[in-house]
Amino acid sequence: KQRALIIGAGIAGIAAALRLQKKGFQVAIFEASPHTGGKLHAIQQDGYRFDLGPSLFTMPHFVDEIFTLYNEKPETHFEYIKKNRVCNYFWEDGTQFQANAQVDDFIVEAAKTFGENEENIKNYLERNKEKYDLTASLFLERSLHQAKTYFTKDTFKAITQLYKLNLSENLNAVNEKYFKNPKLVQLFNRFATYNGSSPYKTPGIMSMIPHLEMHFGTFYPKGGMHEISQSLTRFAEEKGVRFHLNTKVNNIISSGEKVVGIETDQGTFDGDLVVSNMDVFNSYRNLLKDAKKPEKTLQQERSSSALIFYWGIKKEFPELDLHNILFSEDYKTEFDYIFNKKELFEDPTVYINITSKETPTDAPKGAENWFVMINVPANYGQDWEKLKVKAKIAILKKIEKCLGVDVSHLIETEYCWTPVSIENETSSHRGSLYGASSNSKWAAFLRHPNFSSQYKNLYFCGGSVHPGGGIPLCLLSAKIVADLIPNA
Ligand code: FAD
Predict the structure, then answer these.
(1) Which has the closest alpha carbon to 460: 316, 273, 299, 303?
(2) Count of CB atoms situated within 10 Å of the CB of 118
(3) Which residue's alpha carbon is nearest to atom 33 within ligand 1?
(4) Is the CB of 209 under 6 A from ligand 1?
């Protein structure tokens, strides 16, 4: 049997393993840490359960697809519910908005809360859909780096309608054209953070992101976000994929135009092909020391990182839901701090995720498990221990201003992730959440392809390569890799 070696058991590594096993390979995954899932990990602390990384689950059909590939019913392995309420938004002046999952209700309620015209909001959402329909098959579902991608009907259609994509304006400029109320502009600007970018820099085409959320919906997995990686891990084990945990890969061995195996802490393994799910920056710097380096790609600006407090809160807050946003009063300056000054802004936008709203056993009775996150710059050597103290003060102040409560006395347990923890625990270069940022309109083309141009049988998947970061795109990267490889 031909052997496929996969470096890293992140979500894309596990998905690639299952797809290659189905293609007839004998697949082994090598994972440096003691667990699978990479950023999709969780902890238990003092009676609370916390998902450590992703909290928002969109496009669940990409997970289902992996079970159906084996002709199995996804729901026997992995279950999720669709959310009726997408997110609760709060501002310091007391404005509150609950984003309804029903688009028609969203339009009516947003028009009322923000004093906007319903038709305007409707037009905006329709334009977003058009952008997605024009570009998804080109930018997301195929390799951008193969000539045949460009000779399709879809691509010609996209090229003739380029003017509709708002490539030369930033997202904020597009949103300001539609809406008068700065709060609604801010609400739609926030979608730039879904790929770790700035709405004041990322191209207007990114207004297709709200379409993904509003059209396809948002979901919550039974058992928490961790179940996404764990259900796939169990399924992979059942299908014969071999997991080597606590096994750090130190080198990819090459011979001429091919790679022939890997060197790990636990010995050397031969393979007929290698897929790296490790951050592409570190794949080149640490595992491919003799290879030609795509420097322009490796030097791309990284996406933002995050500073997260996981707090056990000994009180229940009925005004909060699964996803909650407490907005900064000065969004523009906040992004200037994240991407230009690379420092913490004193008035950050605070995101609070509470899974005990969906799964009460995630917290003791009468309490809630708060995942409290702010977007921060990637790690450029800042003093994160000092910034952690500053961030906690700023977050508590924001919560008090928006919710009218000082929660500092309610915190009964605390855990924290900084960009350094994210970098150390998942080997993400500079602790970025989504690989390279999308602050330039060329970002999609500069992102590393899913294959190596030097070694015929070396492939790449995961959030740092095409088509980008976030669970759905990582799963698509695994699909593109599998499509590039003939059956064993
Ligand atoms: P990763 O999760 O990056 O895993 C890579 C794996 O490779 C790790 O397990 C690592 O240990 C292993 N590895 C690295 N080097 C080696 C080596 N030398 N040898 C062996 N193994 C190695 N996405 C969403 O869709 N929704 C969200 O709400 C969301 N929020 C996020 C919040 C946070 C705080 C973070 C950190 C991320 C968030 N993301 C979100 C992004 C999402 O988590 C990632 O895009 C995705 O999980 C990355 O998966 P991956 O396959 O690239 O692998």
Answers:
(1) 273
(2) 13
(3) 53
(4) no
Ligand 1 binding pocket includes 347 (Cβ within 6 Å): no
Residue matched to tokens 């347990």: 413
| pLDDT attached to residue 212 | 87
Residue from 195, 441, 209, 187 nearest 323 by CA? 187
Regarding the beta carbon of 306 and ligand 1, being less than 6 Å apart is answered yes
CA of 193 to the centre of ligand 1 (A): 16
98 lines ligand 1 (CB under 6 A): no
pLDDT at 346 over 90: yes
For the chain, helix, strand, coil in percent to 5 are 40, 20, 35
From CA 425, how far away is CA 279, in angstroms rounded? Answer: 12
- Is the per-residue pLDDT at 23 higher than 70? yes
Both tokens of 339, joined, read 């991407």
Name which residue leads in pLDDT, 143 or 222: 222
Please check the confidence at residue 161 and state whether its pLDDT lies above 80: no
Residue 478 Cα to ligand 1 midpoint, Å, equals 13
Ligand 1 centroid–CA 148 distance in Å is: 30
User: Can you give the pTM of this predicted structure?
Assistant: 0.96
Calculate the average pLDDT of the chain: 95
Residue 295's alpha-carbon distances to 214, 298, 380, in angstroms, are 37, 5, 18
Instruction: State in Å: Cα 204 to ligand 1 middle.
Output: 26
CA 402 distance to own-chain centroid: 27
Question: Residue 477 is which amino acid?
Answer: S
Q: Rounded to the nearest whole angstrom, what is the distance from the C-alpha of residue 20 to the centroid of ligand 1?
A: 20
218 in ligand 1 pocket by Cβ < 6 Å?
no
For the chain, report the end-to-end CA distance as a whole number of angstroms: 8
**Residue 462: pLDDT band by 50, 70, 90 thresholds?**
very high
- Answer whether 10 contacts ligand 1 (Cβ < 6 A): yes
Distance 455 CA to ligand 1 centre (A): 25
Pocket probe for ligand 1: among 39, 59, 421, the residue whose CB has the most ligand atoms within 8 Å is 39
Strands 267-270 vs 258-264: parallel, antiparallel or unpaired? antiparallel
What lies within 8 Å, CB to CB, of 2 at 6+ separation is 24, 25, 26, 272, 273, 488
Q: Kindly state the helix (H) or strand (E) to which residue 385 belongs, with its residue range.
A: helix 384-403
Dist CA 334 CA 116 (whole Å) = 25
- Tell me if ipTM is over 0.90: yes
Residue closest to 436 by CA, chosen among 296, 335, 340: 296
